Amino acid sequence: MNSMIQLRLLKDYDREQFIRDNQEAFNFGAMEEFGLRDEHFEEEGQIISRETIKQSIEDGEAYRIISEEGKIVGGVVIKVEGEKGDLDLLFVSPDVHSRGIGYAAWCEIEKLHPEVKIWETMTPYFEQRNIHFYVNRCGFRIVEFFNKFHPEPNDSEMCYDESDEQFSDGMFRFEKIIE
Predict the structure, then answer these.
(1) Could you give the domains of the chain?
(2) CA–CA gap between residue 45 and residue 20 (Å, rounded)
(3) Of 26, 66, 68, 147, which is most buried with the most CB atoms under 10 A?
């Protein structure tokens, strides 16, 4: 797996392209699930807003996923505090899905931060590829399902009473404990 990809810290000159690449990858999953319906999009035509991605980059460690051939094939943003890590964003270009790149990137993240004993991440209920990836490939387990009956307590923006709520059908929270 080591030779399959490399993680390279995000450079300032690449931030805008990182945001566009992330939006493209997230839109791909939404379009597969919902087609052209747009009620799940944060801003015009985007499942994830540039502001959400910018904030994630500013609050965490952002990396580009680089293929063996030296091509940019995705990105990741993590936050690490002691023994706790948060996988905030992980995306792979739709052009290279199902080639083990996401899993290789995850393995590199774990190697990069061996001090982390508990990793967390979240994904919308409809992202079956993500659910499969986190649970069956990376060893996470679903520990919570946020929805209108059980709102996420730390997210003041997640208001399930609004009829246009982006993910009103819910978000899964995943956890991976490393022993």
Answers:
(1) 5-177 (3.40.630.30)
(2) 12
(3) 26
| Paired tokens of 16 | 């805008």
Distance of CA 18 to the CA centre of its chain: 13
Q: Are strands 171-177 and 84-92 parallel, antiparallel or unpaired?
A: unpaired
Q: How many residues make up the chain in this entry?
A: 179
Copy the structure tokens of residue 91.
């995306």
Q: Residue 37: its pLDDT value, please?
A: 44
Number of Cβ within a 10 Å radius of residue 59: 12
Q: H helices within the chain, ranges in order?
A: 15-34, 50-59, 101-112, 128-132
Partners of 138 in the beta sheet? Answer: none
